[in-house]
Amino acid sequence: MASHSINLRLILVSGKTKEFLFSPNDSAADIAKHVYDNWPMDWEEEQVSSPNILRLIYQGRFLHGNVTLGALKLPLGKTTVMHLVARETLPEPNSQGQRNREKTGESNCCVIL
After folding, report:
1. The pTM of the whole model exceeds 0.85
2. How large is the average pLDDT for residues 50-60?
3. If exposure means fewest CB atoms within 10 Å of the residue's CB, which of 19, 20, 27, 43 is most exposed?
4. Domains of the chain, residue spans
5. Domain 6-89 carries which CATH code?
């Protein structure tokens, strides 16, 4: 693996994974297009109709198309794991659900017994 590249291990909802090499200058939209154009044969059942609906999730957040890997400060020469999902639109950052959670004081945290 090249030390100036970022190795992305993409995980589908089905649990299938595949690794791709990208540059820090590549954006989420570039990655979606590359993956779509080089769709792995063993992902045939998950094939989508357009790269425009492929979304990357990193650390629980959807990445907007213009976000580059460099902007995320991903380590060069290392493997970073992201989820790849098919979704028409991204959730709004200030959706109603988010505001409601802030008002009630609930969190999305887990309780470990």
Report:
1. no
2. 95
3. 19
4. 6-89
5. 3.10.20.90
